[in-house]
Amino acid sequence: MKKLALFTAAFLASSTAAFAQDAAAPSATAASEAAPAPAQAPIDTSGLSYSNKWRVKFDNRADSDGEITFVVVLKDAAPVSIVVPIKKGTSENSIASVVKDTLKKSVPKGVKVERDDGEDVLVKYKDRFSLTLKGNTVKDLDINLDKE
């Protein structure tokens, strides 16, 4: 009987400790889930250049994997940041194709995107808008944005 009492006491003690650990785990998880995600820095729209047609010119092959980041700003609309992933070895014509396809899927309604001269992408809209190259982490890839 004494052995049964000791066994029962040991079992209850271990069960209580396990229960306490299980109870602590969800509250730690809940605390991490409740923490707000860091907000993205707002895009500065002061000093932007506007046109109704932009030409994006690509020159050289990609010497590394990387990303090209564009920002599109239509009048009275929130800026739209668009990231285009590029793989190492991609040619300028293929980069233009990838950028065209990604922009077409991501730009606001009404903005037209097409390829021109193989390595160029034209971005057009009925009103004046801003197209900005925010970043380029692809090595040896030259990108020029020109108003038309």
Poorly predicted ranges: 1-39
Q: In CATH terms, what is the architecture of the largest domain?
A: Sandwich
What's the story with the biggest beta sheet?
6 strands, antiparallel
What is the global morphology? Answer: globular
Keywords:
alpha+beta; 148 residues; 6-stranded antiparallel β-sheet; 6 strands; disordered N terminus; Immunoglobulin-like
Structural account:
With 148 residues, this protein is an alpha+beta fold. The chain folds into 2 domains: 1-35; 51-147, Immunoglobulin-like (Sandwich). Helix content is 32%, strand content 36%. It has 2 helices and 6 strands. The chain has helices at residues 2-34, 92-106, and strands at 51-59, 66-74, 80-86, 112-116, 120-136, 142-147. Strands 1, 2, 3, 4, 5 and 6 form a 6-stranded antiparallel beta sheet that branches. β2 (66-74) and β3 form a beta hairpin. Mean pLDDT is 80; it is low at 1-39.
